[in-house]
Write a structure and sequence with these properties.
Blueprint: H1 3-19, H2 28-41, H3 46-59, H4 64-76, H5 80-92, H6 97-113, H7 117-130, H8 135-154, E1 162-165, E2 175-181, E3 187-193, E4 203-208, E5 219-220, E6 231-236, E7 242-247, E8 258-265, E9 268-269, E10 273-274, E11 285-290, E12 296-301, E13 311-316, E14 327-328, E15 339-344, E16 350-355, E17 365-372, E18 375-376, E19 380-381, E20 396-397, E21 403-411, E22 417-425, E23 436-445, E24 455-460, E25 465-471, E26 478-484, E27 488-494, E28 501-506, E29 516-517, E30 520-522, E31 530-533, H9 550-562, E32 567-573, H10 580-600, E33 608-614, H11 625-631, E34 633-639
């Protein structure tokens, strides 16, 4: 033996001689088996580790540290009940505070995860009262204690959700999870794995509802998206035409897992593109969620600049079509622990997410926050029975707020797991404050009916702010725009070379509503083209413009500036109530109010004329209130 080898051997022997007295066993063989077992445990070879630790305990059944490592191994395998049993045996054998704290800390979380809330509070309290060195462990144990306290108080406060798995037509794989739906609830997209093999890749699948409301067998979403590699969690815009998903290998990635975008044109998905370094980092990005119009993106990243290990981040789509630099969603959403699976509801006001850093029923629970002018509200637990002592990672709520979709995973006796997608009915008393509807249809050329790609803007009339912006499909002309309770909306359809159209949807007081279908025919900019200005407002018998007319008036100014060669007539119309002459005078004054606004906004008065027709040119019957309302209008006509 050379001199260097002798030194190494001496050091190893010294380590054994020094380390062994630190343990509770005096059996050299038990110690050797204990050390060998941990070499397997840290590599995930749990069966081998359990075998060696069991042999060590056969040699010395008072070997406390072996009980701890054996319990830890079962916990790594998610066999919580067995882990608790082993931990309890080891804890009963020692009065050493150093060892007791190890057991208390791990048992506290396991008791919480199995619904033994009082036991969890007891051991976690003992840990916090006796630990003085590890602040991170004290913080974690304190949070777990708060969760056990919350769960004990709220475990019987269950809501009357009706939960059921989707049919085996959809749940046909070993694992299916992270479901998302289009706003019309006609398409369900989810991630699937065909086995428990960790090397098995993920793919994105889509199932569609047939005419009888049944989900059809899921198929691969697209050959342009799914590959032989990994395509993971995804999100889709409300109209089903923008998809963002996770891919961890085989593409032009920035980090370990990146987010990619694909667009649906007609019936085909485009080749995905990386969202770029404003969104993706050298670290892990996953679990995206798009706003209804596809212009705000929430996602999860473990990048170092976060508040915890996994945080929720936000990026928006700029006017140049590029995603802006992602920012942390902030302390109102993120904790010092882990937040996962964000889901922004179609109303763009309610954000759901999973967290293990807030008081809950154990593990990850679903929470939600609501946004107003001051920011996000304090997080609220979604409650039982969806949340329980098992982990719950993701939830999707339909636009109308009446149904939810999530994946439930269960451990099988063979150590494997299986997950299924569930649907829940949400009772009226538990539905969110702001629910959403949608308007959809086809945008066409009025003359030859060919589909048009046009911009569709939704403006909140009260705040004069753009709420959403989408585009119709360039192949089939289809569009879908989400409308949310609590506001009066102006909807504008714009395309260069065409006269814009406006619609009004007053949802400020609406409590129940159905989807709306509006097919839109745009007229080319030419003499005789007419637009009804549906968002010009006057008080009864008055001609002063109301402030909420600003969005429509600004739209007219922009249109005239973009088309400097045209002249227009602004005409006022009334229903047949009252004297005809009076109505003609009133309609003329209203048209003149619009004229004056445009002139003050810089439009050359030579391009403008006015006319008050009163009741002379009705577009609907005056026999109904709905008809009379249509007849009370301001029109915008292109003239020579």
């Amino acid at each position: 033996m050379n001199h260097a080898a002798a030194i190494v051997l001496l050091l190893l022997c010294s380590t054994v001689a020094f380390s062994q007295p630190q343990l509770t066993t005096k059996s050299k063989k038990a110690y050797e088996l204990y050390v060998q077992a941990d070499n397997f445990r840290v590599r995930g070879q749990f069966a081998e580790a359990i075998n060696l630790l069991s042999q060590a305990l056969d040699k010395d059944d008072k070997f406390v540290e072996a009980y701890f490592r054996l319990g830890l191994t079962y916990a790594n395998m998610k066999q919580d009940t067995k882990a608790i049993e082993i931990y309890e045996k080891g804890l009963a054998l020692t009065n050493d505070l150093r060892l007791q704290k190890l057991f208390w800390y791990d048992l506290g979380e396991l008791y919480l995860l199995t619904g033994s809330y009082e036991k969890a509070m007891k051991v976690l309290s003992a840990f916090v009262n006796n630990e003085s060195q590890s602040k991170s462990r004290i913080d974690r144990a304190t949070m777990l204690f708060r969760s056990a306290e919350f769960a004990l108080k709220n475990k019987n406060e269950t809501s009357a959700y009706h939960q059921r798995p989707l049919s085996d037509t959809v749940n046909c794989f070993v694992l299916q999870y992270f479901p998302v739906l289009t706003a019309d609830q006609k398409q369900l997209i989810f991630t699937r794995r065909e086995s428990n093999d960790p090397n098995d890749t993920e793919d994105l699948m889509v199932s569609k509802k047939d005419d009888r409301g049944r989900w059809t067998p899921p198929v691969s979403i697209s050959k342009n998206i799914n590959t032989r590699l990994n395509e993971g969690t995804c999100t889709v815009s409300a109209d089903g035409r923008k998809l963002i998903f996770t891919s961890c290998a085989g593409r032009d990635g920035v980090g370990s897992c990146d987010l990619y975008e694909s667009r649906k044109i007609g019936d085909d998905w485009t080749v995905p593109t990386n969202l770029g370094r404003n969104v993706n980092s050298i670290d892990w990005e996953s679990q995206p969620s798009l706003s209804a119009d596809g212009r705000t993106l929430y996602f999860v990243s473990d990048r170092r600049a976060g508040l915890g290990r996994n945080d929720i981040w936000v990026s928006t789509l700029g006017e140049d079509g590029r995603w802006t630099k992602a920012v942390n969603a902030g302390k109102g959403v993120n904790s010092q622990f882990d937040e996962m699976s964000p889901f922004i509801h179609a109303n763009n006001r309610t954000l759901f997410f999973a967290s293990n850093g807030l008081p809950g029923f154990g593990g990850y629970d679903i929470f939600y926050v609501e946004k107003d002018s001051a920011g996000w509200s304090a997080p609220r637990n979604f409650g039982a029975p969806l949340n329980d002592h098992d982990d719950q990672y993701a939830l999707f709520i339909t636009a109308d707020g009446k149904k939810g979709y999530y994946a439930h995973e269960e451990d099988l006796p063979n150590g494997h797991s299986r997950s299924k997608i569930f649907e829940i009915d949400i009772p009226a008393e538990n539905q969110m404050k702001y629910r959403s509807n949608y308007v959809r249809g086809i945008i066409r050329d009025k003359d030859d009916q060919h589909p048009l790609a046009a911009k569709v803007e939704l403006i909140n009339i009260g705040s004069n702010a753009i709420e959403s912006l989408v585009e119709s499909d360039s192949v089939n002309g289809e569009y879908l725009m989400v409308l949310t309770q609590g506001a009066n909306y102006a909807l504008y359809i714009n395309k260069p070379g065409y006269l814009f159209k406006s619609y009004n949807f007053n949802y400020s007081e609406v409590r129940d509503f159905q989807p709306i279908v509006v097919n839109i025919d745009l007229e080319k900019v030419k003499e005789g083209s007419v637009a009804v200005l549906n968002n010009i407002f006057f008080d009864v018998d008055k001609y002063d413009l109301q402030q909420r007319s600003a969005a429509e008036l600004q739209k007219i100014v922009r249109f005239l500036n973009e088309n400097p060669g045209i002249r227009v007539q602004i005409s006022g119309h009334t229903d047949n109530s009252g004297a005809a002459d009076y109505n003609r005078q009133l309609s003329e004054k209203r048209a003149l109010s619009v004229y004056n606004y445009l002139v003050k906004s810089g439009v050359d008065k030579k391009r403008l004329s006015t006319k008050g027709f009163g009741p002379d040119k009705p577009v609907a019957s005056n026999e109904t209130e709905e008809g009379r309302q249509q007849n009370r209008r301001i029109e915008f006509r292109i003239v020579k």
